[in-house]
Amino acid sequence: MKWSQASRVNQAPVIVGGAMAVLALIALGWWISDTPLGIDSAVYRAGGYAVVHGESLYSPLLALPGWALDLPFTYPPFAALLFTSLTVLPTQLCWGLLALAAAPSLYVALRPFADRAHLPLLLLGAFALQPVWQTIGLGQVNLVLMAAVVADMVLLRDSRYRGIVIGIVAAIKLIPLIFIVHLLVVRRFADAARALATFAGATAFALVVLPGDSVRYWTSAIFNAHFAATKGWVGNQSWQGFVARTLPEGGVATVVIVAAFAVLAMWLVHRLHRAGDDRAALLVTAGCSLLVSPISWTHHWVWVVPALGYLAAKGLRGAAIVVAVLFTGWTVAVVPGGGGAERDWNLAEALVGNGYLGVLVVAGVLLTGRMLTLRKDAGSGPSGRMYGRLRQP
Question: pTM score, two decimals?
Answer without folding.
Answer: 0.90
